[in-house]
Amino acid sequence: MPTYDKSGRLRRRAEFISLSLSASKYYTPHFLILRANLDNSVPRIGITVKKKIGNAVCRNRIKRLIREFFRNNKELFSSADYNVVARTGAGLLTYATVCQELANALTGNARQNRN
Fold it and tell me: Is 107 helix (H, G, I), strand (E, B) or coil?
């Protein structure tokens, strides 16, 4: 089973900022996915869940679901950096719904804006 180790994570604020400055944005009903090619050999992911999504239990649950999707579906992620931002209503989703939305976004079935 694939793991979610430090090499697969965005960890510093500077990494999140550089990603957001050069990212393509993909919108789903409950997520915003920022993607940028920053010369990585492995895909890396960062997860952002704002406090208005719910309490700490709800926010941590949605982060666990996104991490599990990343671990089990690394073949959908190209060698780039990703930041998955949870939007309103994401805290109420099941794992199957999270998988469906993120898979659709990564395979090109989501609305895209390029800045």
Answer: coil
